[in-house]
Amino acid sequence: MNNVQKGKLGEKIANKYLLSKGFKILDKNYKTRYGEIDLIAQKKEKITFVEVKLRSNLNYGYPCEAVNFKKQNKIRNVATEYINKNKLENLEYSFDVIEVYLKDKKINHIKNAF
């Protein structure tokens, strides 16, 4: 399985997880000139921008460690465009990371990660 396939698998698993927790998925792989957000979900009056990271092992560190300052800024910029485009200024927001551990079949949802 190549990295693109792994990424899609991680997003599929995270999508299913969020649905099971009562979230509504508003968008997947939302792209702008600034970058991409894997999943945009809503639960009640809160919009959650989700970065999904899948690992089959920890040779390259924990998944959340890949969401560095530069990546966080890209996600914030994309989120700002999404909020403005969809006129969602009056809602709450969070930036979450969902780690998917393929080998252990484990999901770690880091709420308000940044």
TrEMBL record:
Signal peptide: none annotated. It comes from the Bacteria. CDD domains: PoNe_Nuclease. The keyword Membrane does not apply. InterPro entries: Restrct_endonuc-II-like, tRNA_endonuc-like_dom_sf, UPF0102_YraN-like. GO terms for molecular function: endonuclease activity; nucleic acid binding. Keywords: Endonuclease, Hydrolase, Nuclease. Belongs to the UPF0102 family. NCBIfam families: PRK12497.1-3 (NF009150), YraN family protein (TIGR00252). This is UPF0102 protein JWYL7_1128.
